[in-house]
Amino acid sequence: MNSIEKFLAAKTYAVAGASNRQHKYGNKVFRALLAASRETYPLNPAQDEIEGHQAYPSIADLPLVPEALSIITPPEVTRKVVADAIAAGVKHIWMQPGAEDNQASESAREAGINVIDDGACILVLLALQ
């Protein structure tokens, strides 16, 4: 299995940067994972609820540790999200286009996490399934 297949085989997901604004990429990724029948939790410290689902400020606030994390945040926020993911024990991280941060990728890989940060888009891959 390649890194994307491993990510998509996870049982639980979180989306850092999920949003209630439907034109925003974080909202589209969150809805796409839900539409693909994935157990998915939205992460956004500024929102209480996203698309009818309770939103959480950070990974540490989730009721479980998600196996996979999709990140749609600015790179400077990505660093903090990845540090939290490493501390929590997340197994797979997908930095969506624009969220990539070399330092965060390196830290995650050193922690043994499967990292996707090559510009691949989860929306395209989910549509192909």
TrEMBL record:
Pfam families to which the protein is assigned, alphabetical: CoA_binding_2 (PF13380)
Chain ranges of the CoA-binding domain: 7-99
Stored InterPro entries: CoA-bd, NAD(P)-bd_dom_sf
Coiled coil: none
The name this protein goes by in its record: CoA-binding domain-containing protein
Organism: Rhodopirellula baltica SH28
